[in-house]
Amino acid sequence: MVTCVNDAMFPGTGQAVVTLLRRLGVDVEFPEAQTCCAQPMVNTGYLDEAVPVVRTFVDAFTGYDAIVTPSGSCAGSARHQHGIVARRSGDPGLERAVADTAPKVHELSEFLVDVLGLTDVGAYFPHQVTYHPTCHSLRMLGVGDRPRRLLEAVRGLRLVDLPAATECCGFGGTFAVKNADTSVAMGADKARHVRETGAEVLVAGDNSCLMHIGGVLSRQRSGVRVMHLAEILAATEGTP
Amino acid sequence: MNTPRRSPLRSERRGDPEKTSGTFVGMPAFPEAASEALLDPQLRHNLSHATGTIRAKRSNVVAELPEWEDLRLAGAAVKDATLRSLDTHLLRLEEQLTANGATVHWARDAAEACAIVAEVARSHGADEVVKVKSMATQEIGLNEALEAEGIAAWETDLAELIVQLGDDLPSHILVPAIHRNRAEIREIFRTRMAAAGRPAPDDLTDDPAALAGAARAHLREKFLRAKVAVSGANFAVAETGTLVVVESEGNGRMCLTLPEVLVSVVGIEKVLPTWASLDPMLRLLPRSSTGERMNPYTSTWSGVTPGDGPREVHVVLLDNGRTNALADQVGRQALRCIRCSACLNVCPVYERTGGHAYGSVYPGPIGAILNPLLKGVGNDPQTDSLPYASSLCGACFEVCPVRIDIPEVLVHLRSQVVDAHRGDRRPSGESLAMKGAAYTFSDARRLERAEKASSLAGRVLERFGRTRLPGGRAAAGRLPGPGAAWTGARDLPAPPRESFRAWWRRTSGGTSGGRSGGTP
């Protein structure tokens, strides 16, 4: 599951996942019928609108052994919210389909560490990096220190601690526009903590959060880049 | 004798229209109120300092208990079991209270509850009451209702006193004056105390001990004079008809023991079946609330005890929307709440906007669910805005001592808000956008067409736009119209030349043709 945000806005992250997983010997497919996990609708309260989107999701992904996604938030949505949408639909067939797909959804770091049993994925990234644990990966999925362990095993990478790391960046989906001022106030504090680390790159497992923090960092002319975890893990000596 | 001792504070209200009512009535919806609050640097500083301090205290004392998670589960289980047969426990409570010489009143709503308290005070010829800090009496607007009857209600909790003297509104459940620093408190005491009773000393400094000393002297004369006290209750134990108040300052103990008459307004969800079920609650509450292992004062009283404490005891059992909340299968978990405030202290939204933005005596994450559950959604834009006053980060659920899954309830209430407006004659821009998104996301071919259109916009930005993200990717700077909400303070990456799906197809799944960029 590439996710709609990555498909439309950050194809490099999807490409990095493909590169990384193939390098690790995984047979990767991109079911072209996939669209979105329906989280934008569910979290804004539009359950009826989410029903056909969840239907599209299960149609695209039924039958695979593992559904891997470079987003803690979308993994959380599929695992914890698709059931709510299916119940709303009143369609027992959809409920059964969701019960089948939901547990097969893995956030990328979970898949690498738990399913493949790896922390060293053979990556090389000679930069100073700080890591922001996104809320849904941290508190909804409970990925714990898996992303950190993956980053610590990257050759050349220097990982520096982010102050107040577990505090929300303020993205929050439609919260970012419905409560834009509050969202930006939270993002500005997160950006300040990122700058305090002196890191060149801010890494996280969700591009939506990074789009928000990166947007603030860019407007501040901070010079700090944001990158998805997958892109760092996909990088090797041979890649630019 | 019966000249009403009207609170002199009220007449001083002037200027700021929000303060003339002394209530939250007429507050704007959360986004507007929050935007306003965000402009106050003193507020931001006071809140971040205060919530940071209390967060650290809580976190330390919770870490001392390896069984904390089991305690949380026990607390949630006790509350859930009680709520499942609430009627039985309430009748048992009434029976025991009555047997102990208390008078039990049932109040359907705020107006009924206020009328009962006013009648008790009036029947004793009282023109003033002293109050123990109580969320239920704030929820029903008791002070204002009593004032309308010519009865002055004196808050005796230090922070409530600061709020009352300052003609202010509470902004936190536990620490209602959390938005004030000590210099502001000194100023309030110096300028306002004299009009309400014993004045502050002329040489009052902003030393916390001096401020507490001034409050102590000011309150002492009220404790000794008042005939009637009003309290809430943290818990009500049905098996013995016992009310429990948990506090830090001793003002509650004064109110509960000195006056002749005591009226307690108790939400019906406060009942617990037994003393054994009180056990986990008394262990969960202080650590979650003040970050203490145990609170300094826990008062319990069971009706009237001759020769000891009040000679007349009334208990008002308050519904005011609680049975509506109970009927909501997802939302009913909010009735487990023991008003500890841990969710406020950890909430990144609350820390930045403060409590007033929530427009209720229940602010923060718990307020964002409790207010809509008690009042119902679809009736006023302020209440409907509250379930959206959260980034759904989940920090509140993590600290809640009774495991209220606040994000789950928020999302559930959002769907209720949307459903309540489905019949609106003019659909909102948001609902049209969501319908459009649902249409696009229901079929990958539609999504592909949308991506092609957006990549065109991306090419234009890449060619003509001046904004670049660190790393060189083109971006949109400040956009007009709906895009302004994002780009007012954040750059937005330009859409890539090629979507992932277009790349996948062009390169046969990445096996030929290379990458197309588009990193964040």
Determine the N-to-C terminus distance of chain B: 75 Å
Q: Oligomeric state of the chains?
A: heterodimer
- Helix- and strand-based class of chain B? alpha/beta
DSSP helix fraction of chain A: 40-55%
Task: Output the strand order for the largest sheet of chain B.
Answer: 1-10-7-4-2-3
Question: How much is the average pLDDT of chain B?
Answer: 93
**Largest sheet data of chain A:** 4 strands, parallel
Q: How many individual domains of chain A?
A: 2
Which stretches of chain A are low in confidence, meaning pLDDT under 50 for 5 or more residues running?
none
Report the C-alpha radius of gyration of chain B, rounded.
27 Å
CATH superfamily of the largest domain in chain B: NagB/RpiA/CoA transferase-like
Number of helices of chain A: 14
* Rg of chain A (C-alpha, Å): 18 Å
What is the distance, rounded to the nearest whole angstrom, between the alpha carbons of the first and last residues of chain A? 26 Å
What order do the strands of the largest sheet of chain A run in, or round the barrel if closed? Answer: 4-3-5-6
Number of helices of chain B: 24
